[in-house]
Write a structure and sequence with these properties.
Structural class: alpha/beta
Low-confidence stretches: none
Largest sheet: 6 strands, parallel
Number of strands: 8
Shape: globular
InterPro entries: AB_hydrolase_fold, UPF0227/Esterase_YqiA
Number of helices: 8
Helix content: 25-40%
Radius of gyration: 16 Å
Order of helices and strands: EHHEHEHEHEEHEHEH
CATH architecture: 3-Layer(aba) Sandwich
CATH superfamily: Alpha/Beta hydrolase fold, catalytic domain
CATH class: Alpha Beta
Protein name: Esterase
Strand content: 15-25%
């Protein structure tokens, strides 16, 4: 039975590896909602969550699963590693997902760069990723994605970390926007927020 106190839609932003809720994309999303969709928020129809994801993938998945299982329609926005998580949950719970320069497959060279000692780019926290973490990530990979209409891909060809063509190959039938240039940060995020909101069916 639905809890009347829960929002109609829960929009969850999943940041990338070594990122945080303080990233420019996360802040731009919050600012846009506060300026353009505040009526939906005030009416209790929309809740926006930007969780600080644990560095350990297994803990991140546990946190997100608890959020998504709460009563509400869920829409995911995932950047980089957050995009990889978004694909996993979109397939598991059949919800819409907007993928921003996403990681779509854990290649061997990416697994190697994922391992070891790292520093969060925003808060300076240090953490370690072990082989067991990469092995767990591999179990989350989704091989055959049939219902691709629930995905919106936002890609910049100048992504210096991930090859945007891999996302196109994995999602040939998804809604796609490919922008020449840019970088892994996806510099056009603010410009495409109206497209994201429209795809998420969150028009006020």
């Amino acid at each position: 039975m639905r809890d009347d106190s829960s929002p109609s839609t829960r929009l969850i932003y999943l940041h990338g590896f070594k990122s945080s809720p303080e990233s420019q994309k996360a802040l731009s999303l919050i600012d846009y909602v506060q300026n353009e969709l505040i009526d939906l928020v005030d009416q209790g129809k929309l809740e926006v969550l930007v969780p600080a994801l644990p560095y350990k993938p297994e803990k991140a998945i546990a946190l997100l699963e608890e959020m998504i299982l709460s009563p509400a329609r869920t829409v995911l926005i995932g950047s980089s590693l957050g995009g990889f998580y978004s694909i996993y949950f979109a397939e598991k719970f059949n919800c819409k997902a907007i993928l921003v320069n996403p990681l779509v497959t854990l290649q061997e060279n990416l697994a190697d760069s994922f391992l070891g000692h790292h520093t969060n780019l925003y808060n300076g926290e240090e953490f370690d990723i072990e082989i067991s973490d990469a092995e767990y990530l591999l179990t989350l990979g989704q091989e055959n994605i049939e219902q691709q209409g629930k995905y919106l891909l936002l890609l910049e060809t100048g992504d210096e970390v991930l090859d945007y063509k891999l996302a196109l190959e994995k999602f040939p039938n998804a809604n796609q926007t490919v922008i020449p240039g840019g970088s892994h940060r996806f510099e056009n995020f603010e410009k495409y927020l109206p497209n994201i909101i429209e795809f998420a069916e969150l028009m006020a």
